[in-house]
Every structure is written in structure tokens, then in C-alpha cells.
Amino acid sequence: MKITAIETLVCNARMRNWIFVKVLTDQPGLWGWGEATLEWHTHSILGAVEDLKPLLIGQDPTRIEYLWQMMYRQHFWHSNGIVRATALSGIDIALWDILGKLHGVPCHKLWGGPVRDYIRLYCHLGGGKMEDFYETSPADATRFADLAVQAVESGFTAFKSMAVPETMPLEGLKPVRYAEKCVAAMREAVGDSIDIMVDCHARPSPRMGALFAKALEPYGLYWFEEPCWPEAVEDIAAIQRMVATPIATGERLVTQHAVREYLEKRACSVLQCDITHCGGLSEIRRIAAMAEAYRVALAPHNPQGPVSTAASLEFGFSAPSYIICESVHSDVEWRQDIMSDSFAVERSGRTVRPSDKPGLGVEINEEEVRKHPWQQEILQRTFYPDGSVGDW
């Protein structure tokens, strides 16, 4: 059996263009689906996939590790930058889908079978608007509380929000008190039995991140996410030591080599490496083995399309340290129209049980995808009140 073609399909889903990767074989009816979505870099990803094709066409798709090594190591430049790693990830995910279909088993059975009966999902409430924080009183607390109640009423037992406002490298008490009020309102609205996560989106400086972490510690967060730039690993480690709150990070880390320093320095309690960016299912399994040695939990970043979610779930059923899956369910109303999948979400508790469908258990409706062609994503530019550039 040989790889005969690698195709990409772009599907605009408002905030991002989903990039689906289809690896075809010379065996009739056998192909695999992957995903290589990278917001605001669609054209770069399409080009990177094209660059990798010559290494793969004519190769045996079941030699997954061999092909991964070729994509990562050949042509001199290692695939440890976000664009090449994302393209590699999309192809790698598709290869595992092929292998599962070839043997008639779901991917998690290729990796030793399920280690759990179900996976819990969490949703994202979003965040307050920067202009609300800087120009008006912090009235967002009520809105966050209302969204939290809606999430619980729809069955979620955990949710995440961006209740920490964007800040300059150093500010006074106003943003800290704002975050406190928003998180306090959510906790009061849903009680102690619901898990609340707060995402800083790596916006704060290390010092502001530390101030936010200390201020929110009394509210018993499930995790506090990306308190400062991922490049500042020493500072993230210091914040982890400063508070009892579990620190989560890793969505921008590419390959196990980037993860190693975080583990060695005990910089986090939760690793969020994105399967569509870090090196695919092959690499996330290596990362999982490293994390297991340090007893660090796994909760992969997953705000993309349906193939990314299928890959995260299949991986989660096989990984002992996996704790929860990020769920995007209302980004576009036609999300279910472009796919067929076998993951039935149980509304009570928003949980998913393993499927017996082979591979990733998802098929993409190409005709429906073509109804939503590429569009330029909305530019997310952030500026502080003085006009200087901020982090979105």
C-alpha cells in the first residue's frame, strides 16, 4: 500500500479557517483525515503541506514513525517551528486514521485500549472586552456569572473564561480587583461543585501574572492558565511555586523538546499541548509519557475543528494522565453538517464514551466544506490606552 496524494480543504468557521488534511492511498476507499488549523496562517500551512508532500508520496502510510521522522528531520530544517510542526501534525493525524481504518479498530485500541470509561468536556465562556475594562466600571462580573449559569444548565461541570483583563507590563490594583470580582461572581453563581478555569492567554507580564494568580487563589480554580508569555518558563515556574492553584500551559509549545524544560523546572501542573500543533498524535504520545513520569496532567488545547476534537478524544481514551477535553460546540451552527462522527455527547455532565468506529471515527463531508470557502479571519489587534501594542 502506498500514499498516492495529500489534499487540503479549507473551511471558514468565522474565527478561524479550519484546514483539513486528507491522505489518500492506492487501496480503494481508504484514506485518512487530519487537521492542521492555524489561525491567521492558513496560506503558510497550505504551503508547508505542499513542501512535505515529496517526502511522502509513494511511501507506505503504515510506517507512521518512519514518516514522522522524515517530515521532522529531512531537508535540513527541523519541523520545530509552528508552521512546519502544524503541517506535520495534520498529516500525522491522518496517518493514524488510516491505520485504524485498515485494522478496523478505533485509534485508542492501537495504543493499548481505553484506560477510562468516559471523558469529561468543558466549554469556554470567552472574555470581557478590553474597552469595558478601561472605559467603564467593571460590570462584566454579572455577565460572566450569567454565562457560567448557562454553561451549567447546558450540562457542563467545568468551564473556562478569560476573566483576567489585558494589562500593560505593570498596572495598579484596578485590573486585579476586576478579575477578582468576575471570578467571585462566577463562583457564587455556580457553587463549589463546578470546576472553574481562568485563561490569561499569556497576556500579562510575569509580575502581573503573579498578582492575578495570588488574587484568584482563594476561589479554588481547577487551573490558572498561561499567566505570562510561554517563553518565560522560569517565571511560570515561580508562579506555580507561589500558589496552590494548578498552573496550566503548553498550547504554544512545539514538540517534546520544548516541553522538557517545563517538566524539569516543575513549571506547571497541567500540560495543554495542542495535537494539531505539537507534532500530531505521534508526538503527543511521547509528551504524555514524559508528563506521566512527572505526574503532570494533560488537557490538550482544542478550539479548532471536528478532526482536532476526534484526535483529542481518541488520544484521551488511551492516556492515563488525560483529565478533560476542551469542547467547541457553538462556534458555527453548521458544525455538525460537515462531519459524521460516532462520539455521542451525554448531556448530563457533558461526557463522551469511547466509540468502536475505526480510526478517528470522523468523516468530513467535502461538499458541505466547499460551501464555506476561505475568508480572511477577523484581525485581532490589541492596543493599550496609550497606543502601544498589546498581546491578543
Helix content: 25-40%
Shape: globular
CA gyration radius, whole angstroms: 21 Å
Percentage of residues in DSSP E strands: 15-25%
Q: In whole angstroms, how far apart are the ends?
A: 45 Å
| Tally of strands | 15
The structure class reads alpha/beta
Q: Can you tell me the CATH class of the largest domain?
A: Alpha Beta
SSE sequence, one letter per element: EEEHHHHEHHEHEHEHEHEHEHEEEEEH
Largest sheet: 10 strands, mixed
Report what the structure shows.
- The longest helix has 22 residues, at 82-103.
- The chain has 13 helices and 15 strands.
- It is 39% helix and 17% strand.
- Strand 2 and strand 3 form a beta hairpin.
- It is globular and about 65 Å long.
- Strands 4, 5, 6, 7, 8, 9, 10, 11, 13 and 14 form a 10-stranded mixed beta sheet that branches. The protein has a 3-stranded antiparallel beta sheet with strand order 1-2-3. It has a two-stranded antiparallel sheet with strand order 12-15.
- It starts with a strand and ends in a 23-residue tail after the last helix.
- With 392 residues, the protein is α/β, with parallel strands linked by helices.
- It folds into 2 domains: 3-105, Enolase-like, domain 1, CATH 3.30.390; 110-360, Enolase-like C-terminal domain (TIM Barrel, Alpha-Beta Barrel), CATH 3.20.20.
